[in-house]
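Re: export button greyed out
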Amino acid sequence: MGDNALLLRLGLFADLDDEDRAELTQLCRNVRAIPAKRDIESDGDRPEQVHLITQGWAARYKLLPDGSRQIMAFLIPGDFCDLHVAVLGRMDHGIVALTPCNVAFIDSAEMDALMSKNNRLTRAMWWGTLVDEAVLRQWVVNVGRRDAYARIAHVLCELHARMQLVDLVTEDQLALPLTQDELADATGLTPVHVNRTLQRLRADNLIEIGSGRLNVLDIGRLKEAGGFDASYLHIQRRVH
Amino acid sequence: MGDNALLLRLGLFADLDDEDRAELTQLCRNVRAIPAKRDIESDGDRPEQVHLITQGWAARYKLLPDGSRQIMAFLIPGDFCDLHVAVLGRMDHGIVALTPCNVAFIDSAEMDALMSKNNRLTRAMWWGTLVDEAVLRQWVVNVGRRDAYARIAHVLCELHARMQLVDLVTEDQLALPLTQDELADATGLTPVHVNRTLQRLRADNLIEIGSGRLNVLDIGRLKEAGGFDASYLHIQRRVH
DNA sequence: CGACGCATTGATTGGATTCAACTAAGGTGG
DNA sequence: CCACCTTAGTTGAATCCAATCAATGCGTCG
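Workaround output, generated via the alternate export path:
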């Protein structure tokens, strides 16, 4: 597996040649293991390096004064944590490992050098962050206008689709190492209500979920329940 | 006023020289008037041009199957509608003029040319879209974890801060041409509840609001009420 | 003047939260 | 190997914030 996920993901947008692949592989040579529950980056940090998830799950989050937490994105293999930080300078949110993770540490200078010499990869990486932004817009819709049932269905559809893109779904089954607390923080609900809502989704034979796995029994009806339309993920190939 | 707003906004991030300013002014020479309630871009469009608000207010929005609407961003003078569309190809949401607007239409080719020859402006424009993304993350927090009172206070703080950046605030007063319906669609509430909540904000002497204007009576307490911290707007100058 | 958009108010309903207890599973150490 | 502890998941009852339904006020514009 390793950094394949990045190649898979960027390959969805651009036709990468062997040289591109070699450069990306070279870029990700410095990988560190991060234990679960550890911050990969904390709110306010001024990181000197760009971080990329190569294995495991992480989450962007923000803590509120009252102690509650809002998760704003789930990060899976192939996702950058902070491609933007070279421009913005400081993190305005935290990123925490939800499972033990492998994270590639990439020197900003090396990233800058790559970006100024390889236009195709630059565009492909910007495509990635622009898709992240599109996902974020969907999350606003999700927490703003959908009820608990549709909200959870939508998140599960998104994760199913994104995991599929990096080849981590087999027969509509995937590893889903999220606790109900984490799902609650992502959907703006309470853990108790997430629990009851998951039970309804199970009772309606849309999913099997538990012990770190998700089995989507009827992806069509799950999408319908969540009002999910994958087009916002922009997965058509555009650069050749 | 004209396209000053763009110069003001990008000038917050980068020290622009006269040539930069001239190029931006040249870029925005083609301005069209858009009447209120008209889509500037519709969901699914494949625009050939980049659009920039030079006057008036607009909103990014998404319609749901049940007819409800979620607004995901307010656009004010100096904001790009779709800097990303050259990469993503198609709009995954709509943009509607909330007031009569002046919109600069910029040929994608011209934008590409500028971006490949002027690094400082390129970084400044990416900074703009990355800040938009940071704002979006705050909106997820807003609708996900804040109650109606804090939610509306936060949105008003954001608009106050952003309008200040483009010099459209005088003594904590600004034009705020939003209906309560539009505020409701932005905050994930109902118009009725927005109305009652605005009355509480008025009764607490935090704001005066009505007839298209907002007067912030106590910005400190309003920020406190909304849990607002402006650092996510990344307004420190970084490029020289 | 009548019609329309927008703001306001009241009464009622309901989805989700809160608080609390309890079960199940997994890991650790004596 | 079992006692103990922790973490995650489940269930129930009461409460509450916001939604819903409905009506009214009010200013503006054709």
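Residues 179-181, 191-192, 195-196, 199, 210 of chain A lie near DNA strand D (CB under 10 Å from a C1'). The button fix ships in the next patch.
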